[in-house]
Structures are given as C-alpha cells and as structure tokens.
Amino acid sequence: MKHYARKFNELWRLVDEYDDYSSSMSALPVDAPLKDRLAVFSRVAKRRANFLASRLLRLFALLLLGAVVGSIAGLVGSAFLWGMNHASQLFLASEEAAAESGYPRLLFALPVVGVAIVALYSVARTSIDAGTNQVVEALVSEKKPSLLLAPLIFASSIMTQVCGGSAGREGAALQLGGCVGLGVGRALRFHATGLKMAIFCGMAGGFSAVFGAPLTAAFFAVEVGCVGLVYYPALLPSLVSAAVASGIAKSLGFAPFFCALPVFPSTSALLIARVLLLGLLCGLTSVFFCTAIRVATKSMARRFSNDYWRIIFGGSLVATATVLLGTNAYNGTGALLVERATQGDANLQDFALKILLTAATLGAGFKGGEIVPLLAVGSTFGCAWGELLGIEPSLGAALGMTALFCGATNCPIAALLLGMEFFGAQNALLFALACAATYAVSGRSGLYKSQKLAFSKASGRAVDADWRSYLSGEEEKKKERGARSGAGSDAALQEEVDAGIDQLKKSAGFARALERILSDPDRDKARNK
Fold first, then answer.
1. Can you list the alpha helix ranges (DSSP code H) found in 29-102?
2. CA 184 from chain center: how many Å?
3. Which residues contact 345 (CB under 8 A, 6 or more apart)?
4. How far are the Cα atoms of 58, 249, 295, 307, 418 from residue 221, in angstroms, in the given order?
5. Cβ neighbours around 304 below 10 Å, total
6. Under 8 Å CB-to-CB from 346, ≥6 apart: which residues?
7. Of 36, 168, 354, 368, which one is least surrounded by beta carbons within 10 A?
8. 8 Å CB contact between 341 and 330
9. Cα within 13 Å of Cα(469), Cβ side
10. Are 367 and 163 in contact (CB under 8 A)?
11. Residue 95 and residue 329: Cα distance in Å, rounded?
C-alpha cells in the first residue's frame, strides 16, 4: 500500500512544463556532425515522450481520484439525505398529531436536543462553531478540518431537523464531502496539493448527491475558495466526482429538484430592466441574510459564554417564535416554501421571517446548512416582490433563488448553472442578468469568512494580498518571499541576515561565523545603502 501511495504521490509532482532542447539544436554549428544532431534530437524526443506520458498518467490519476471520492461521497450523501428526509417527515407528523390529538410537539424538545449536540461536540473536543467554513478554509490555507467533523455534522443535522430547527442540509453535505475527500487523501498519503484536490472532489460529490445538480456542485467547489478566481486544475476531478455521486443518489431513488418555467417569446428592454432591479434587491437581501447570521452568532456567543446556555436560549427562542407565528412553515429546511413559491404562492414577509428563524437556529449552535434556507428566502422574496415589479411570480421565484445563491456564496458561475439545472436553460440570459446585478451589489459579504477576495467587485483592484496562496500554496509563497529577499531591498537583506543568524546559532562555530558576517564590509555597505 505504501508503495502505491508513493507512486501516486509522484504523479502530483510531475511538472506541467518541460525543457525544450530545440535551442540546443539551433546552437549547433551548421557543419555539426550528424551524430551530434541525432543525439540532440534523441534527447528532445525522449523528453517530450516522457512529458506526454506523465500528462496521461496524471489525467488517469485525476479521473480515478474523482471516481473514488465521488463514489464514497455519493453513498454518504445519500445516507445523509435519507436521514434528513425522514427527520423532516417525523417533525411534520408530530405537528399534525399535536394539532389533532394534543400530543406534545417535538418542537419543544429543541433545547434538549441542543444540549445533546453541544455534549457531542464537547466529547469530540471540537468547537461548536466548527462548520462549512473550516472546509472552505482547507482550500485556501494549510489548515485541515478534523475527520470527526463528518459524523458530528451527520448526527447533529438530523437532530436539529427532527425538532424543527431552521437549517438546511447542503452545508452539512459540503462538510461530509470535504471530510470524505480529506480521508481518502490521507489514506493515500497525498501531499498538500493532492489533499486539496481530494477535498475539492469531496465537496463536489457531497453537494451533488444531496442537491442533484452535478454541474452546480463541481463549479461551486472550484469557485467558492477565492472570490473572482476559479481553480480550474480541480475542475475535471470535481466534475467526475459530482457526476458519480449524482448517479449514485439517483440510482438509490433520490430525484433531483426540477421546475419547468414558461418560455418567454421575447426578452424586452422592460423585462431586462425589471430583472436587473430584482437582482439589485436580491443583492441587498443576501447582505441582510449573511449579516443576520453573523450578528446572531456573535451576539449569542458574547451574551452566553457557556455553549449549553447559548443553545438552550436559541432553541427556546425558535420554539417560542414558531408558537407565536402560528405556523411551522418557517421551520426545517424551507423546501416547502420553495415549492410554494415556484408555484406562485408567497407572502411579502416570508423571506424576512425565514431569515430570522435561520439566524436564531444557526447562531445558537444548531447544525445544518445555510443554502436551502437561502434558496427558500430567495424564492419567496423573488416571487412576492418580483410580482410587484411586474415579473411573473414563478419566474421571480426562480430568479430570486439563483440571485440570492450568487450573492451569499459569491459564486456567479455556479449560481447560473443552478438556475439552468433547476429551471431549464430557456431563461439563462435572465438568470445571468439577475446574478450579475446581485454579485455587484453584495460587496464583501458572504456566508464563509475564510473566502479570499482576489479583486474588488466594483473597481477590479486586487484586494487580498494573499490570494495567490489559493493557487500556489504556502510553499510557493515561501519561494516568492525568498525570491524577493534576493532583490536587494533593505528589508529583504535584513531578513536574509536574520535567517542566516538563526541557522548559525545551531552550529558550533556560531560566535566566529557571526563575527565574520557582521564585519563583512560588502554587507555593511549594502545595509547602509
């Protein structure tokens, strides 16, 4: 096993560029012997053959990695989806039984379940605030999430759902998939780049198994790490993983969501203006959604230093709000709200109430995802408020879903593909316009604080100085610092001297070597200059 793991790791270290010996051929004299020319030609041919072979081996390795990770993520995601569906059905059945016969509602057990969730995370020595952000952080840094995150999020999400917590499932699927990819990468002893590739595949597979949208899942995985950049090297294995996971979920009986929209014969200037205005409003709503979750989390954590009291308070708040509202439509994932909105049935206040209950649930420490509640918010907002702008309600719901997904995740390509996979490609232009307007308005807000922002959405300026680490990794950053240190600047020279002193401290002749360095006239001149 170690032998194959070592060979597999070597594939990741194969260079994408090779030395071209044509310069050696041209450097030969015109009257060079035929033997020398044949020798150079042989070197060129051998080098290029090795290069092509390495490319084919790497392609095979990527396909194999995507298939393996996608298969495991598809099975795990399907099991998770089965558990979440049954948990939602159990909650709704308890609500119906309580309304008819006066049985106790599972809703009132939400604080007790919250205590159990905190206890699980405490036993596993994992922070209750650990979530999807840790998986995103693994894409942009050397930090990797704990593999215990997978069983914890699996169990705690189902526990939250069975008692009516307002949380989704796709965020949990991202965590499950990311941990699956990380586990496969560690089992094969991948280095940093290989681990990152495996995590990309896991996220795409988990998202696709639960969502049933492989294109959206693959592009979301490679787009979510850094706003404004797409990690295309991971696109092929992510697509394979998403396709395999989606196929497994379908074969097990989990049908993807799809809602056919009417085809508009012409896209008028008035309709485009209305769609752009709706996109701008969706951008502001996405900022409100992300801000509400962040503020709820910080305020509850500041008010309750003990996680047990914090989650008890949050569970009691959600249960009380549900009783006062007189409906459980805003509990759970929000899939029922999405279904109603796509049929043209939504109230003006639905989106705000769903945001508040979701912020209270996730801010208290309950587990699940943010994306399905986000889609519920977008569909209800687009349906109700889009109708006020003169947009057909079902089309407004579809536009709101895709636009809010874009604004909160900062993934415009994945959002466009989401609209096409959920509602068909006949209105792709309208989806693109709504997503573009939302993306421009949403600014730096987003669901994942570990996301890097490469370029400003408004001006296009480079914003995050470390965004290159998303593409090159920490090792490349060190190489860049080393290259800059040789450029002759004062700070670089001082850094070089300090590093040399640290190395010399470990040697026996430290004092003598240090005196020699500090007394070097050339170095003194360079430093003074």
1. 34-101
2. 18
3. 383, 393
4. 20, 19, 26, 31, 13
5. 17
6. 337, 340, 379, 380, 381, 383, 384, 393, 397
7. 36
8. no
9. 19
10. no
11. 11
**Full DSSP string of 176-210:** HHHHHHHHHHHHTT--HHHHHHHHHHHHHHHHHHH
Please provide the size of the chain in residues.
529
CA torsion sign, 131 to 137 to 139 to 141? negative
Alpha carbon of residue 383 to chain centroid: 27
Residue holding tokens 């519920």?
376
Question: What letter would DSSP give residue 326?
Answer: T
* DSSP assignments along 266-292, one per residue: ---HHHHHHHHHHHHHHHHHHHHHHHH
- Scanning the structure block, which residue is given the tokens 């996608």? 70
Residue 220, both tokens: 């979301």
- To the nearest 10 degrees (0 to 180), the angle between helices 34-101 and 235-251 is 40
pLDDT category at 476 given cuts 50, 70, 90 is very low
Beta bridge partners of 226: 452
Which pTM value belongs to this model? 0.78
* 142 contacts 180 by C-beta, under 8 angstroms: no
Tell me the chain's radius of gyration from C-alpha atoms: 28
Q: Which residue type is seen at 497? A: V
Q: pLDDT tens digits, residue range 59-108?
A: 888 889 999 999 999 999 999 989 988 888 888 888 888 777 766 688 88
Give which of 144, 143, 160 is closest to 152, Cα–Cα: 160
Count Cβ atoms below 10 Å from residue 514 Cβ, excluding itself: 15
Token digits for 143? 């930090």
Q: Find the helix packing angle between 371-388 and 350-364, rounded to 10°.
A: 160
Sign of the CA dihedral with 55 first, then 227, 184, and 218 last: negative
Which positions ≥6 away from 342 have C-beta within 8 Å?
259, 379, 383, 394, 397, 398
Of 103-107, 452-456, 458-462, 521-525, the one with minimum mean pLDDT is: 521-525
CA distances from 63 to 56, 159, 198, 235 (A): 11, 36, 11, 11
Residue with tokens 């392609």: 59
| Token pair in block for residue 104 | 């106790």
Buried b (16+ CB within 10 A) or exposed e, 16-55: eeeeebeeeeeeeeeeeeeeeeeebeeebeeeeeebeebe
